[in-house]
Automatic annotation (TrEMBL), chain A:
Belongs to the CcmE/CycJ family. It comes from Alkalimonas amylolytica. InterPro entries: CcmE, CcmE-like_sf, NA-bd_OB-fold. The lineage of its organism: Bacteria, Pseudomonadati, Pseudomonadota, Gammaproteobacteria, Alkalimonas. GO terms for molecular function: heme binding; metal ion binding. Residues 30-163 are extracellular. The gene is ccmE. This is Cytochrome c-type biogenesis protein CcmE.
UniProtKB/TrEMBL annotation, chain B:
It is a multi-pass membrane protein. One of its GO terms (molecular function) is heme transmembrane transporter activity. Pfam families: Cytochrom_C_asm. This is Heme exporter protein C. Residues 6-184 form the Cytochrome c assembly protein domain. It comes from Alkalimonas amylolytica. It comes from the Bacteria. The chain crosses the membrane at residues 21-44, 56-84, 91-109, 129-149, 161-181, 201-222. The lineage of its organism: Bacteria, Pseudomonadati, Pseudomonadota, Gammaproteobacteria, Alkalimonas.
Length: 163, 245
């Protein structure tokens, strides 16, 4: 390799390293802003080294798994209340609206709304978050014991809990 | 080590090489794509929770993977163009860019069509979605920069530099779902672990993926041939090949 090519090679590698370094530093600094949602643990215990917790009244998104047996529906309206968990404490979400078809107990969801109390969020939007596993219904039933019925197809007797 | 590559740096040789490769690539791409997509879209089973909507995977995942592979290919060509100043490497940057841009746009559009019924939203400023959108802008930026200079040589150099620098985005796209909390789920097949897709759905997906790769290579061959002819149109070999006057 002659000297001119070598010079070009090194200068391009240097530019690339500089750009990669600065973008890396930027993304690291913006870490909290890039996260789409708080997990229940982050909401309760705070994020990062400073343990920053969201304030009451703050608009935020919360993402976690719907706790089994925690879904309570109001038989008169669309009002629904359920608990979310990741690895630690649980957080309660209240939502008045139509749930996405993927919603079920044990499913991951992301809710957007306001923090009303320490661990209570009044959501204005609930999005379903599915995992990266895809399989036919028979396999899911045999392997994981899951038989998914979309909320819109559930019968009234199944879903009407006390409120 | 790269001795066999050297003759291909000569436009005339590369033109004929691509010409010989193109029919094989195109025919096998059409055959494999038809087979893989028909299997996936019609015969593969439904998903246990997404039902028929999961079939978007047979278009979405291959185009998303291709958008990143194509970018990597373009960045390597740009790097060779900058350091070794190989003419055909610089031409291939512009030959590859629109193909990658189309794959990126397909992955974004099919992703939106998949997100609305499943997640409940067309778009969310999630790290994966945003970095993929940036990839589209990088492709468009390379194309625009190439055309922004009246001197093609300068335009080619500047566009190649952008293409090389943009490679930083590729690992960000791939790892975005691990580094941050995102609405988009983690990787299903591009990981060092058993794929999380049931074999009855994985096979049509992998076959579709192979078909997409072959289609991309065929299109690159086609565009590169056109680019070579355009740049070398006054050379005697072009006149001899095309039988012009």
């Amino acid at each position: 390799m002659n000297a001119r090519r070598q010079k070009r090679l090194w200068s391009i590698l240097a530019i690339l390293a500089l750009v990669a370094g600065s973008i890396g530093a930027m993304l690291y600094a913006l870490q909290q802003n890039i996260n789409l949602f708080y997990t229940p643990t982050q909401l309760v215990e705070g994020i990062g080294a400073d343990k920053i917790r969201p304030e009451i009244g703050q608009r935020l998104r919360i993402g976690g798994v719907v706790v089994e047996g925690s879904v309570v529906r109001d038989p008169e309206s669309l009002l629904v209340r359920f608990d979310l968990v990741d690895t630690g404490p649980t957080v309660t979400v209240e939502y008045n609206g139509i749930l996405p078809d993927l919603f079920r107990e044990g499913q991951g969801i992301v809710a957007q709304g306001h923090l009303v109390e320490d661990r209570l969020i009044r959501a204005t939007e609930v999005l379903a978050k599915h995992d990266e596993e895809y399989m036919p219904p028979e396999v899911a039933k045999a392997l994981k014991g899951i038989q998914h019925v979309p909320p819109s197809q559930q019968t009234a007797t199944e879903s009407a809990g006390g409120y | 080590m790269f001795k066999w590559l050297h003759p291909l740096a000569k436009p005339e040789t590369l033109y004929h090489f691509c010409g010989r490769l193109f029919p094989w690539l195109m025919l096998s791409a059409i055959g494999i794509l038809l087979f893989g997509n028909l299997w996936g879209l019609v015969f593969a089973p439904q998903d246990y929770q997404q039902f028929d909507t999961v079939r978007i995977i047979y278009i979405h995942v291959p185009s998303a993977l291709l958008s990143m592979s194509t970018y990597t290919m373009m960045a390597i060509a740009a790097f060779i163009a900058l350091v070794w100043q190989v003419k055909v490497a610089q031409w291939s940057v512009l030959a590859i860019a629109p193909i990658g841009a189309v794959f990126t746009a397909i992955s974004l559009l099919t992703g939106m069509a998949w997100g609305k019924p499943m997640w409940g939203t067309w778009w969310e400023w999630d790290a994966r979605l945003t970095s993929q959108l940036i990839l589209l802008f990088l492709y468009l930026g390379v194309i625009a920069l190439y055309g922004a200079f009246s001197d093609r040589q300068t335009g080619g150099k500047v566009a190649s530099l952008l293409a090389v620098i943009g490679i930083v985005n590729i690992p960000i796209i791939h790892f975005s779902v691990e580094w941050w909390n995102t609405l988009h789920q983690g990787a299903s097949i591009t990981k060092f672990d058993t794929p999380s897709v049931h074999p009855s759905m994985l096979w049509p997906l992998l076959i579709s993926l192979l078909g997409f790769y072959l289609l991309m290579l065929a299109l690159v061959c086609l565009r590169l041939r056109t680019a070579i002819l355009e740049h070398e149109q006054h050379r005697p070999w072009v006149r001899a090949t095309l039988g012009g006057h």
